[in-house]
């Protein structure tokens, strides 16, 4: 069973983003994978509005990512945290796959597409904190 890292937005419309991340996890499970969505766990113990805690959360997420077989980009919006995860996955050679919201919410079969071929929107509400230092 593949361990897949669910990469989807958290900040902004948190309620809907949590709902979408849960749907992505269910989609992964229904396709025979074990999903990991750290953004469903870490906000329970860390405050995303505190720069030091946000940095800790990103670092812990990147550590978890290193143990995963694949990273799945879910949806068409890329947050700052997601971009860190995608860059790290590519750096350490973890395959990156992309799923549309329609695939996840409609239960369609996953297609492998190149990340570079998909138009993405960077979320402005997740610009890095001034004191944030990403250590890889």
Question: Which features characterize this protein?
Answer:
single chain, 136 residues, alpha/beta, Rossmann fold, two-stranded parallel sheet, 40% helix, globular
Task: Describe the protein's architecture and organization.
By secondary structure, this protein is of the alpha/beta class. The chain has one domain (3-126): Rossmann fold, CATH 3.40.50. The chain contains 5 helices and 6 strands. The strands form 2 sheets. It has a 4-stranded parallel β-sheet with strand order 2-1-3-5, with helices on both faces. Helix 1 (14-30) links the parallel strand 1 and strand 2 (34-36).
Which SSEs are present, and which pair or pack?
Layout: E1 3-7, H1 14-30, E2 34-36, H2 38-41, H3 51-65, E3 70-74, E4 77-78, H4 80-91, E5 96-99, H5 101-106, E6 121-122
Mean pLDDT: 84
What general form does the structure show? Answer: globular
| CATH topology description | Rossmann fold
Q: Count of helical segments?
A: 5
Give the structure's gist in a few sentences.
With 136 residues, the protein is of the alpha/beta class. The protein has helices at residues 14-30, 38-41, 51-65, 80-91, 101-106, and strands at 3-7, 34-36, 70-74, 77-78, 96-99, 121-122. It starts with a strand and ends in a 14-residue tail after the last strand.
